[in-house]
Amino acid sequence: MKTLQVYSVIFSIIVTALACELRETNEEIQSKRHVEEYINKTRPFVVDNPRYRLHYHIAPPVGWINDPAGFTYYKENYHVFYEYNPFNTSYGKTHWGHVISKDLVTWTQLPMALIPEEELCFSGSAIEIEGTLVLMYTAHKKNESSFNETQYLAFSNDGVVFNKYVKNPVISFANNNSLDFRDPKVWRHGDRYYVVIGSRSSDDKGRVLLYKSKDMEYWEYVSEIAKNNGDLGYMWECPDFFELNGRFVLLISPQGLTNKTTDRYQNQYQVGYIIGTFDYATGNFKEEIAFQELDYGHDFYTTQTLEHEGIRHLIGWMGTWYAIFPEREDGWAGAMTITRQLTLNGDRILMKPVQAIENLRGPPIFDGYLEPDNIISLNQTGELIITVNLTEDLILNIRGENDISLIILKWDMATKKVVLDRNGEIRQGEWKPVLSTSWRVFLDASSIEVFCGEGEMTFTSRVYPNGMWRVVNMSVQAVNVTAYALYRSVPL
Ligand SMILES: *[C@@H]1O[C@H](CO)[C@@H](O)[C@H](O)[C@H]1NC(C)=O
Ligand SMILES: *[C@@H]1O[C@H](CO)[C@@H](O)[C@H](O)[C@H]1NC(C)=O
Ligand SMILES: *[C@@H]1O[C@H](CO)[C@@H](O)[C@H](O)[C@H]1NC(C)=O
Ligand SMILES: *[C@@H]1O[C@H](CO)[C@@H](O)[C@H](O)[C@H]1NC(C)=O
Ligand SMILES: *[C@@H]1O[C@H](CO)[C@@H](O)[C@H](O)[C@H]1NC(C)=O
Ligand SMILES: *[C@@H]1O[C@H](CO)[C@@H](O)[C@H](O)[C@H]1NC(C)=O
Ligand SMILES: *[C@@H]1O[C@H](CO)[C@@H](O)[C@H](O)[C@H]1NC(C)=O
Ligand SMILES: *[C@@H]1O[C@H](CO)[C@@H](O)[C@H](O)[C@H]1NC(C)=O
Ligand SMILES: *[C@@H]1O[C@H](CO)[C@@H](O)[C@H](O)[C@H]1NC(C)=O
Ligand SMILES: *[C@@H]1O[C@H](CO)[C@@H](O)[C@H](O)[C@H]1NC(C)=O
């Protein structure tokens, strides 16, 4: 207890010292205002074109969104930041957008947290230090021939306005100086801060580098905690490193994984995890369970987690780089997944929807067995709870009222697989229920998320229905379904 108090004093001195050297130039203030004005001016077009506009997923007010960042709890709010280009529905001038929530379900938009100056503001993380919210992010600088990635700090005392640190960068090159060096995820352990950073080695292997510091400014290289020593790609983005049920989990977003022969790794890039043991004294992470992909859907790349009140939450980008994003015509592109709660079951992570999402439910729309001619009519949102009889096939046709087909969600008894068929693009995997044999299916205006059983298998995909949702029984088995509409919890 006493030791903790001493540390607190030291931390507070450090932050006070750092905070004296903040800057927000007039130019920066002007740019922030300019961005907010631009958003206000272009918002009506988005609001007037709501066909794909999500009701309970974080999405950009206008423009382009990708990686989540800075997932943290500060001054009684959860904070999520995201890589954001307000000026285009394609990736470009990367800012940090910012939303907050009391319950991880209902989100309020805040002003731009970081604007690019000489650097693009790539992903990173956040940590509270004695009342100050500290962001650590990757400054990406590029010219025609090359680019450079270093790690920057920014500070806020109210969780709204952020000032960059004058002495940036705080980590200026990767060990062995590889170019790709990004997405710092910082945490505190004992009297030290630690950060893991994604990297590409000079021999083109994905790897994760670990650094430590006692003041967030001077960082000491500790170790390469993991590296691709086989077929796990050339670059590992968005690393996250945490304890879950007493074991250490390294969560990564690898690029260049070529092993697409099985049901796994069907997307352009992946998100997955390695389970092992870790020794803070040596910085040695020892792999026990090899890389496993986290989600089975079409659109799931880059994630970040936060532990608060003993629960480890995850939020991810519900997107991929090569997707078409039909909502671009409506002035925006991309979204985050709903927040999930992580636990470990044996060697596998379970992902469940955060509990508070149940508060969005309206009265049940359907409750009972789907008869041959039954169609469940939803509007733009819905949650279906489906009890699966594993001894027979189950087939549901999920589509817009004006579609002939769109999604087929299936339990294939012969192969023991759950199948999500999006217009012929199949994603599937063998399902061995750990306990419950039901599915929770979340439909929003342009997305579907399926959680099987206790969350041992999930599918996250963008889908674009023509009209309101319809769910049609095509099964052999009598399908037991409870369905709810879900209320809006994000700004239109
Ligand atoms: C943008 O609109 C919001 C909400 O209407 C308003 O609070 C804010 O002042 C506006 N910002 C600018 C820079 O016009
Ligand atoms: C938006 O991004 C696209 C693709 O990068 C580019 O071709 C286009 O010029 C950009 N538009 C604006 C207004 O910057
Ligand atoms: C481009 O950026 C790289 C990396 O920062 C730098 O080494 C190089 O000198 C720059 N080239 C030009 C033409 O500015
Ligand atoms: C750095 O490079 C040296 C020399 O090529 C190599 O022996 C060493 O393993 C590398 N270290 C890391 C962390 O990549
Ligand atoms: C990036 O720029 C920093 C200076 O800010 C420099 O120390 C570092 O070596 C550069 N990295 C590469 C890979 O050139
Ligand atoms: C790739 O496939 C081979 C053969 O099926 C397997 O041994 C290896 O573990 C796979 N690699 C990954 C990263 O899953
Ligand atoms: C729908 O469900 C019923 C049982 O409630 C079943 O008899 C019927 O064959 C199912 N399939 C179709 C295509 O209607
Ligand atoms: C769908 O919208 C219509 C028209 O606004 C409304 O009457 C109906 O109750 C809604 N249905 C559901 C399931 O929310
Ligand atoms: C599952 O289906 C089989 C075959 O139709 C039936 O005998 C059994 O009662 C069903 N189980 C449940 C829990 O509905
Ligand atoms: C139908 O599903 C609900 C949960 O949605 C469950 O409570 C109920 O027991 C199920 N009915 C049968 C007969 O399996």
UniProtKB/TrEMBL annotation:
Its EC number is 3.2.1.26. It catalyses: Hydrolysis of terminal non-reducing beta-D-fructofuranoside residues in beta-D-fructofuranosides. Residues 407-470 form the Glycosyl hydrolase family 32 C-terminal domain. GO terms for biological process: carbohydrate metabolic process. GO terms for cellular component: cytoplasm. Gene3D superfamilies: Exo-inulinase, domain 1 (2.60.120.560), Glycosyl hydrolase domain, family 43 (2.115.10.20). Transmembrane segments: none annotated. It holds the Pfam family Glyco_hydro_32N. Keywords: Glycosidase, Hydrolase, Signal. SUPFAM superfamilies: Arabinanase/levansucrase/invertase (SSF75005), Concanavalin A-like lectins/glucanases (SSF49899). SMART domains: Glyco_32. It is an enzyme of class 3 (hydrolase). Residues 1-19 form the signal peptide. It comes from the Eukaryota. Residues 57-353 form the Glycosyl hydrolase family 32 N-terminal domain. The keyword Signal applies. CDD domains: GH32_ScrB-like. Belongs to the glycosyl hydrolase 32 family. PANTHER family: BETA-FRUCTOSIDASE. This is Sucrose-6-phosphate hydrolase. It comes from Helicoverpa armigera (Cotton bollworm). The gene is HaOG210755.
